[in-house]
Amino acid sequence: MTFVTYVGGAVAVFGLLVYSYFRIPSGLPKAVPAIPIYTSVIGLWSDMGQDQIYDRWLREPLEKYGAVRIWFAGRWNLLVTRPGLLSSVFRNEDIYSKAGSQKKLPWGVIAALVGDNIINSHGDTWKLYTSIMKPGIQRTSLDSKPLLEKSRKFVDILFNAQSGVGAGKGVLVNPLIQTFTIDAMGESFLDIDFNVSNPPLICEEVDPT
User: Fold this and answer.
1) How far from 127 is each of 63, 86, 119, 184, CA to CA, in Å?
2) Per-residue DSSP letters for 88-122?
3) Cα 185 from Cα 179, distance rounded (Å)
4) CB-based contacts of 99, cutoff 8 Å, min separation 6
5) Cβ-based neighbours of 43, under 8 Å, separated by 6 or more
6) CB atoms < 10 A from the CB of 171, how many?
7) Is the pTM of this model over 0.70?
8) What is the CA radius of gyration of the chain?
9) Torsion over CA of 73, 66, 25 and 93, rounded to 10 degrees?
10) Fewest Cβ atoms nearer than 10 Å: which of 28, 104, 159, 161?
């Protein structure tokens, strides 16, 4: 009887811990629906894409309410899509402070990839990023000549890379596009020529078969 009591107590404690971990916080608004928690992992165990998951579980409540409660990054979040609600969030950053993956999941791969940036930063850090980015984005005149030259060079790089592997094979274009984007954004918005497209590129061959 004592053993059964211990087992029952352990199961009860475990169940309480699971409930407290997955319970929707009382601070989230109850007027908007909660998306089933299994939608966050269903893509791992089925062939459903994110677009299918969105159409089946998220589209209707988001279009109706403009916001839903959803499980993401190990916690419940409020996903907002209605413009009026988004405007309120952006205008009241003291109430709705942003927290990116580097704070939600500091041990995760996404946190290591994106780090702290202008999208998910808050307060003085966000002001620092915007002070750097705004002058380039809000400029009244934009000289398109550097971008045109970078684009022509990018096309030449693609042709040269393809001719280097021969017919019947392709090249992995991701690193080529990344270097072009860095060059184009740097010169167009920051007035900095990173010149990352100039060093010899090692192109990975892709066999279509």
Assistant:
1) 32, 19, 11, 24
2) HHHH-TTTS----HHHH-TTSHHHHHH-S-TTT--
3) 10
4) 120, 122
5) 49, 50, 53
6) 20
7) no
8) 24
9) 80
10) 159
Answer whether 149's CB lies under 8 Å from 188's CB: no
202 in helix, strand or coil? Answer: coil
C-alpha distance from residue 156 to each of 118, 152, 174, 197 (Å): 33, 6, 16, 11
Beta bridge partners of 117: none
Q: In the chain, which residues have pLDDT < 70?
A: 1, 3-4, 140-141, 197-209
Count Cβ atoms below 10 Å from residue 53 Cβ, excluding itself.
Answer: 17
Q: Residues, the chain, total?
A: 209
The residue behind tokens 């202008």 is 118
Residues 30-84 have pLDDT tens digits of 899 999 999 988 878 888 888 899 999 999 999 999 999 999 878 888 899 999 9
> Is the CA virtual torsion 207, 179, 111, 135 positive or negative?
negative
Name the residue with tokens 């892709």: 206
